[in-house]
Amino acid sequence: MDEIKQLRVKVAQCCRMLEYVGLIDFSGHVSARIPGTNQVLINSWGAPRCTLTPDDIVKVDLDGNFLEGNGPAPTETPIHLAIYRERPDVLSVAHLHPPVTTALFIAQKEFIPVIYHGSIFARGVPVHDDSRHINTAEKATRLAKALGDARVVIIRGHGCAVATESVESCFFASIYLEDNAEKLTRAYQMGSPKGLPPEEIEAGYAGIWKENQFQKVWNYFLLKTGLNF
Ligand SMILES: [Zn+2]
Description:
Layout: H1 3-20, E1 29-33, E2 39-43, E3 57-61, E4 66-68, H2 77-86, E5 92-96, H3 99-106, E6 127-128, H4 137-147, E7 152-155, E8 159-164, H5 167-190, H6 198-208, H7 211-225
Parallel strand pairs: 6-7
Antiparallel strand pairs: 1-2, 1-5, 2-3, 3-4, 5-8, 7-8
Bound molecules: zinc ion.
């Protein structure tokens, strides 16, 4: 399989798996930058997220031009393009509507790592303090600036954008963002959550963010969902 075809398959699998676990509803999206180009693959606006296949992945460029596929691209595609423009290290972006993470920030509760894998967000979870759709380059640039060099930026009252160096790591970060938020939220309901001590956060930040970790989670969900296209 050629590289672009393979990337198209991965974007479709990631979108389907994120929909399966409830992090993308009927309108979230996943993209990947084609390495070494200004081109991006993203699921189309109209394809139902619960049934989409590699044929529903379209190609756009960083200026927002539609290049190929069964379009159009999602109206919030500017989120992806602005992050790719600001962050050359980022090769994959997911725009999620994660229920618990979103609620946690609506409640204005502090997001702290409380599970070991939550330490991947130890460098901070910034917030874009505007719930409206991000459908212009100008709004998206503001979001990308808020993201800075973090792995996720929260869009208050709306969702978030996860930005990492591969589709698999983007899926991994998405899963553990919501997992940490779920356990943290339950802990807030019961009392005062105990965050990880600094040495555990340091160990986790350096030790968890690895290719074999991404692959383990990716392969588990591929098998669970039967999405080997
Ligand atoms: Zn959205």
